[in-house]
Amino acid sequence: MRKTLTLGLAAGIVAAIGFVAPAQAISSTSADLSVLHAIPGLTVDVYVDGALTLDNFTPGTLAGPLDVPAGDHVVAITAADAADASAPVLGPITLSLAAGSSYTAVAHLDASGNPTVTNFTNDISATPAGQGRLTVRHVAAAPAVDILAGGAAVVSGLTNPNEASLVLPASTVSAAVALAGTTAPVIGPADVVIKDGTLTIVYAWGSAEDGNLALATQEITVAHTNPGGVNSGTAGYAAQRDEMVRAIWIGGAAVALAALVAAVVIVRRRRIES
Question: Which residue range(s) make up the domain with 121?
Answer without folding.
Answer: 19-226
